[in-house]
Amino acid sequence: MAKKLLNSVVTKDGRDLDLKLLALTSLNEKERAFEVAKKLSDKLSSDNYWWYLQDEASSLFALAKYFQKYKPSGKVSCSYVFNSSPERKVNSDKLFVSQDLKYSDTEKQTLKFTNTSSGNLYVEILNYGIPEAGNEKAESSILSAKVLYRDDDSKLVQVEKLSQGDEFVSEIRIKNTSGDYLNNLVITEMFASGWEITDMTLEEDNDDYDYYSSYNSKYNILHVDTRDDRKYTYFSLASGAEIVFKTRLTAAYKGEYYLPGIVCESLDDNKIFAKTKGKIVKVE
User: With helix as H, strand as E and coil as C, how does 224-252 read?
Assistant: First the structure.
């Protein structure tokens, strides 16, 4: 009866695999628990499966209980050669071993891995870094983004070359091209170091720039976090709706600066995003 109930409570998308693994581990169903643990591990390591924080935490807890009860035999034993560096051997009694592979070259990297243990080893390569200035990719999925700069007469401003003291407004248009209402979106705006943000919340006539209380059927602005050189805006957006974010700026310091592209993304799904390309700007 317990097994029958166990199968009936698992959802189709597998988000209850953690509960199933905990139950099977408690029932001493080692073989079935192993299959569930493998499925859960595959989902946790997949780039195509997005996890809420609480789901990820409960899944890791379930896996910890499984490995606490069914400790694997043997050790982690392997060796690898990264590019032209000497062979490095890894031997550990732990279930998980992490190694940092640092490189600064943009050329093709080579990793040769050899498993010298008595069982299967699962290897995952994670690549982190900051794109070189100007080499970011303008790309989008489900969201679209467009950035313009205007003066007080709504005329377009070419920010590649500004005069010191020029005041202008950045205008960012975000559109939801999907058929769903999207919650938990955030847009990150980072400005050139020679520009200053005018905090419109300190001025009396700031209706066009006060997003804190904005709400209608098409969007909901949840929070705006303005800092010295950047601005984070948290919001939701209805299907097919477009929202415009404005920030007043001043070209304050002479020099040549890099203006990063903007990033708009979902906090819940890494397949929902829009990015623009950065560029060099001057203040004379």
Answer: EEECCCEEEEEEEECCCCEEEEEEEEEEC
